[in-house]
Design a protein that fits this description.
The complex is a heterodimer of chains A (106) and B (153). Chain A has 106 residues and is mainly alpha-helical. Chain A is 86% helix and 0% strand. Chain A starts with a helix and ends with a helix. Chain B has 153 residues and is α/β, with parallel strands linked by helices. Chain B has a five-stranded parallel β-sheet, sandwiched between helices. Chain B is globular and about 35 Å long. The N terminus of chain B is likely disordered. The chains are: A mainly alpha (106), B alpha/beta (153).
Chain lengths: 106, 153
């Protein structure tokens, strides 16, 4: 028998909650990947390394907000903008980036 | 959702999801699976896979993230639209670069952009996913009615 609209909504909410829980559980790994990419760029600065870091931060900014982690998303967006400015101008505001990175993980 | 599904004579809309975030693919898929009118036939985690799966699966509609590894969604959109009239709904972001890419995605042949980051701070995932389902249904219907021999209602 097909679900009613209310039943379907309840099932959808439960499924999304389970996916959100998995996302939150994996967040430390995601942050560790970003930290590693940042350290990699600091050790050997390059456009490729910065672009790779941007991709990771962009993904975090987009997904964290959707999963209800608004503070993480907001900080990741700020970091993303700094990276984009760095890619456009060749000048990175490293101190600001460090501060944001530390506060996202904190 | 199921209560809004197709009648027995209609086949489901075949959807390909292209997004490098496993969790977003899962979320989009979970919502769509509950809708009798939509069948998720494939998932791509980068642009190259999206192009290959678009060729092999011939989906009715594609949701496409823009910022993906290997090949970005912009390039994948252009390549797919060169080969087939498959409607592509782009998921974009709010950043300045994202805004620019959104415009370019529309120029490349995407039919619509849904802004992920506009929603990121203001709207929950269920709302965004439901909006996507609504737009998938809309564009699939548009595509079917404009196809040769399609429903010209």
């Amino acid at each position: 028998m097909p679900h009613t609209l209310e039943q379907s909504r309840a099932i959808a909410a439960a499924k999304l909650q389970a996916i959100r829980d998995s996302y939150v559980a994996r967040l430390p790994l995601q942050l560790a990947e970003i930290q590693a990419a940042w350290l990699g760029h600091q050790a050997a600065p390059s456009t490729d390394a910065l672009t790779a870091l941007h991709r990771l931060v962009h993904r975090l900014a987009g997904s964290a907000g959707l999963f209800g982690l608004r503070d993480v998303s907001r900080k990741a967006m700020a970091l993303e903008q700094l990276i984009e400015q760095g890619l456009a101008t060749g000048h990175l505001q490293e101190r600001k980036m460090e501060q944001i990175l530390q506060s996202i993980g904190g | 959702m199921n209560a809004q599904g197709p009648s027995a004579c209609q086949r489901p809309i075949r959807l390909l999801i292209a997004d490098d975030s496993m969790f977003l693919r899962m979320a989009i898929g979970a919502i769509c699976e509950l809708h009798d009118g939509i069948e998720v036939v494939g998932e791509a985690e980068n642009g190259v896979e999206a192009v290959e799966l678009a060729r092999s699966l011939q989906p009715d509609i594609i949701t496409m993230d823009l910022d993906m590894p290997e090949m970005d969604g912009l390039t994948a959109t252009a390549l797919i639209r060169c080969e087939a009239e498959i409607p592509i709904i782009v998921l974009s972001s709010l950043s300045e670069r994202g805004g620019e890419l959104t415009s370019r995605a529309l120029a490349a042949g995407a039919v619509e952009c849904i802004c992920k980051s506009e929603s990121a701070l203001d709207v929950d995932l269920a709302t965004v996913a439901q909006r996507m389902v609504d737009r998938i249904m809309h564009w699939a219907k548009q595509s079917a009615s404009s196809a040769p021999g399609g429903d010209q209602a």
